[in-house]
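Replying to the earlier thread about multi-chain prediction with a worked example.

Input:
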Amino acid sequence: MADLLADITAYLLTGDDEQVSSLTRQALAAGHKPKDILDRGLLAGMAVVGERFKAHEMYLPDVLMAAQAMNAGMEHLKPLLVRDGVPSLGKVVLGTVQGDLHDIGKNLVAVMLKGAGFEVLDLGSDVSPARFVEAARQHGAPVIGMSALLTTTMPMMGAVVRLVKESGLAGQIKTIVGGAPVTEKFAREIGADAHGFDAANAVERVRALIGR
Amino acid sequence: MRPILRLLDDTLIDRILAEARDILATLGVEIHNPGILALLADHGARVDREKCRAFLPGELVDNALKTSPRSFKLYDVYGRETHDLGGHNVYFTPGSAAINVLDLGTSAIRPATTADYIRYAKLVEQLPHISSQATAMVPSDVPPNIQDSYRLFLSLLHGRKPVVTGTFTIDAFQVMKDLQVVVRGSAAELKGKPLTVFSCCPTAPLKWSDVTSQNVVDCARHSIPVEFISMPLAGFVAPVTLVGSLVQHTAETLSGIVIAQLTNPGTPMLYGGSPAIFDVRYETTPMGAVETMMIDCAYNEIGKRLGLPTQAYIALSDGKQFDAQDGLETGMGATLAALSGINNISGPGMLDFESCFSLEKLVLDNEICGMTLRLIAGIEPREDFPARPRFEELLASKHLLISKHTRRHLKQEHYLPGRVIDRANRGRWLAEGGLSLHRRAQQEVERLIAAHQPPELSPETRSELRKLMEREARRYGMEHLPHM
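Result:
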């Protein structure tokens, strides 16, 4: 029985979405708990993917293929996890800040977060502080992720962080920032909770923020 | 298409060839080897034995070129083909015969030892873009008379790749040939599958010493490939002009070809060299000078015009430390050489006018070689036409990171260098230790050496190699080889 979960992990590592989908169904039929399949099959695989990516043993396309396979398995698990009352890994509200239309980096973060098992609410680009905070409140998202490519739009990140505080949500909603000109130092200066230097790092930081 | 650099047009090449032949016929070449002078005389050369000078008529040169192979292959210690030296094929070989090594820990320049050589041999095995070994360092902990053969011995014991080498004396040839016969199993096997290339160097201007000319003859007799290393120094012992130095290089190299082909028609040879301009401020021979590289690339074009495979000492630097000058000179040399189609490009790892070897530099140079090889693979359409379906896919899915087209062609199209090359953003660079190039290269050296697997030569072969080397060492007063 345990072999099925190991197989899910193995096929996930090769990015084989069809096999992961089929094995997930088999695992459910064999009586595995959805949460076990998620933790010991899919997420165990994604943890290996993360390590290998950092070690340059896997490249971004491999990571995204694995993420795609993960989602193929999640299709079967999601309704059952909701039924069992298993909380999702977490929701992340994501967007490029107001005045900035550059969304390539933000999109990559979205793909990587989804691949790691997070729910992503992608607000797109040119997102006002109010929209960020409102979306997080409405959907109960514990994290707001902001992206900027322009030094001229970076201050909007500070505006979002301030609005979270003014709305009395500090502590409930954490903020993470990223983008080519954005640094760890800048994140500290504006009072953001974290900075991701690339998409894979953003996933790690979000995981730490949520405590998963 | 395969991009090709040309520095000379055929008219100029033909003029240089004609002038070189005229010099060989009228001024002749000085050869301090009575046997070779007799051989040349027997084949129609006018010889002045007193002045050790032979005058080579055009016909002798023509006949030698007729029997010169257009290409030849090399094979590793297991007998597997590794090189097809011909056409515009390109292979990288470390620089040769440094007396010093740049110490990895202290960055001090010091004499090389057995331990350094073994670490080097292990490292070369791990570098995918370095196709052959060279006997890159001269171990100082054995007697001078075995320093040449001992390098080859260590290379055959610790590495798989073919070896570019050479002898320092006439006597050493025997054992250097015998070591190879042991690896191959028989002299006939060695002849069929060459394992080494021997560098044979004329002396500028237009001169062959007893030792180096005899090396050519000895190699030819056993069909061991030879690379001619003519070294005109432009402005000192060769004309200051690049064309003048090319005339001299051509004459010296043609004289070597005549010696080899008369000894044994069909002897495999590389039309090689290590010319340089002469720096009139420092009295040095800068290998990293662009003009030096231009002479290299240009004589390679002359060799190609003659239909011969080529070689040059070009991807190397005159820097004394592991620094930016190394990257500049080696990168420029490797790129020009590869674009020119020099078949055996020698130099990686080398510093300080071919006198100091650096393992860190070799690791960095391996990446230069990798990028250069990608460059000459050129630009080819790969399922690119019609283009519309690809762009429909891109517009629909917003990115092509996991497109089948991407996955099929990523590795063909993009060369991904090892960790020595920094392509991280600042955040990731810091997360990975914020290391300088030097530190990254040092770490790669240690990582690669630790991962080395020794070649699986049979215990009999290893013991036979050791016996031969020990006998040679005893001849020169060394009872026990240095501890390995």
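Chain B has a mean pLDDT of 97.

Feel free to reuse this layout for your own posts.
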